[in-house]
């Protein structure tokens, strides 16, 4: 059963028979026109490779157009969906204006070269998203959620500003290109600035211990949640990619790898104990952001960008279809992991084959550097998909083998194609793929990560009251955003 976090706003304020405001229609049309224009621009850029930019303030390259296309696609879908979904909502016009503001702020951030434009747009992204979270001004919990999330976003903006301005002051460079090309190893502010940039990134992506703002943002209308989970939280992946050379030069990637892995495991555990559909999706997003941060920590910023794009498609769909899912489902017990020896062998074989196919198509594997972890993640993903198929009782043994084979061949091929395409579009970006040498810390943490993953799949958390209670407490939103204003 879904709690107030999904339906309170819509049920109390929607009138589906109400006319759609002109502003919402215009907003939807603007988003789609911009998307089409951007796709044409991307094609033109790939054919003619023009030098687009404005002085030293803005620059447009393949990476810029890739992120623009992604963001505009999600914004267009959400805008069209909300046009009818929020019909009758008192603040529908406000929602449309805030959505346009958020989309434009993301586009400005991605093309910013001058530090002032980059920082202003980062601030604007957080401001618009906080306003979308609290768009219903008549709802006390929504107002509290807006204030709570805005504190996180403004803190992240302040931390990012300090980190970047320290480098600007030391190098006398005030453009992104200038900072990347002039900063050298041994710079007095490099480590401090890198740490501050990392903190700003993990705040926005709701990485542990800054995850509570996302769990408290359930007051937002479902279209706003889709926009937030498909676009806003992914912004840290873009930020880290822009500053990849500085992070690599400062030897700070190991922090991203560890904190991303911890977040991925904790959030997956927390997801399993949620009964609210929006909280389940929020925990899922936090876990996926953890995986994305891990990929940055491995030195594969191109893989992180591919991950954030795929996650955006997946999560936007889940949020926009969550209401239908709740209406058509009934409570049931969580499935227990039960697998025979033959099934386990099949899962292992297909996992290994999937990893080998990914390696062949992308050339991204080595037992001596961090690419081995990227391959391992692919193997786990294929193994999970295979497990779901071999447990399906309606399939014969032959059908299970056939479906598993087709799924991993098509799935891995499509992912490899996307991965290679994104890598090509990001080719102008420096150091987007720099595998790190394996060290003892990475190996130990990798083993711990695998152990945690299998503990989760085996459902051990259900047998430990202490673990269950602590996970439940960690996944609680800010108290004033749930049933705080009673009437």
Quick recap:
By secondary structure, the protein is mainly α. The protein is 72% helix and 1% strand.
Question: What does this protein structure show overall?
Answer:
The chain is an all-alpha fold and 487 residues long. The chain has two domains: 4-326 and 469-481, no CATH class; 341-468, no CATH class. Helices cover 72% and strands 1% of the residues. It has 21 helices and two strands. The chain has helices at residues 4-13, 22-48, 62-85, 92-111, 115-133, 140-171, 176-182, 190-204, 212-215, 222-232, 235-242, 244-249, 253-272, 277-297, 301-320, 322-327, 341-362, 371-390, 397-425, 440-457, 465-474, and strands at residues 52-54, 58-60. Strands 1-2 form a two-stranded antiparallel ribbon. Helix 3 runs antiparallel to helix 4, helix 5 (115-133) runs antiparallel to helix 6 (140-171) and helix 8 runs antiparallel to helix 11 (235-242). The chain is globular. It is a multi-pass membrane protein. Keywords: Membrane, Transmembrane, Transmembrane helix. Residues 112-327 form the NADH:quinone oxidoreductase/Mrp antiporter transmembrane domain. This is Proton-conducting transporter membrane subunit. It is found in: Endomembrane system; Membrane.
